[in-house]
């Protein structure tokens, strides 16, 4: 009894309208099927009258066939209109729901803003940032301490041995090159004795005799 006096909501109205539109669409489809059946029967009747030579009957049936086809085409237009109305109803329903959701969200945001203290929120964020930095520094100190504790004493000695080995290899290579290089004062070519800048008289006379001059 109470349901009879219950006020319908927008969703209830839209559901009823959608249901009616679906029923109308089905009825249009049935009407179109009936018209198509009549169209086929009329085409057969026209062919039958044409074979019998009854031209007057053919003309009358042909006019009826034209009217029937026009009526069938109108069912397509009506069906398209019904589909458009159903689509518009669904779109309007979606928009109304979106508007309702936005209204609810706005109210929620207003309630949150009333309860939220901006200064307190800012202080909380600053405290969080400070503690986060402190935690990072503490973690770095702990890691450095652990590294110092767990570093083995032999590691440094091993590193020094590697360095010494490399230096020794370099030294050996240099020594080898120095051995192959000519020793100072030994393999350098000796300076040629200084040539005489003056020719003796005997040398002059010898050259003159060779030329046949007395």
UniProtKB/TrEMBL annotation:
Keywords: Coiled coil. Pfam families: Snf7. One of its GO terms (biological process) is vacuolar transport. Residues 21-52 form a coiled coil. Transmembrane segments: none annotated. Residues 183-203 are annotated as: Disordered. Belongs to the SNF7 family. This is Charged multivesicular body protein 2Ba.
């Amino acid at each position: 009894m109470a349901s009879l006096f219950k006020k319908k909501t927008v969703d209830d109205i839209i559901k009823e309208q959608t249901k009616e539109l679906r029923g109308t669409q089905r009825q249009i489809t049935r009407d179109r099927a009936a018209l198509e059946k009549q169209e086929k029967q009329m085409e057969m009747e026209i062919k039958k009258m044409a074979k019998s030579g009854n031209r007057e009957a053919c003309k009358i049936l042909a006019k009826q066939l034209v009217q029937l086809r026009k009526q069938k085409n109108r069912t397509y237009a009506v069906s398209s209109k019904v589909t458009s109305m159903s689509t518009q109803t669904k779109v309007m329903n979606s928009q109304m729901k979106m508007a309702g959701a936005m209204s609810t969200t706005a109210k929620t945001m207003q309630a949150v803003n009333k309860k939220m203290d901006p200064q307190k929120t800012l202080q909380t964020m600053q405290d969080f940032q400070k503690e986060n930095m402190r935690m990072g520094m503490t973690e770095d100190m702990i890691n450095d301490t652990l590294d110092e504790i767990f570093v083995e004493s032999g590691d440094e000695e091993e590193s020094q041995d590697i360095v010494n080995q490399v230096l020794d290899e370099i030294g050996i290579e240099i020594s080898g090159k120095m051995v192959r290089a000519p020793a100072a004062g030994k393999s350098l070519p000796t300076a040629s004795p200084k040539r005489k800048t003056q020719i003796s008289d005997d040398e002059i006379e010898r050259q003159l005799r060779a030329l046949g001059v007395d």
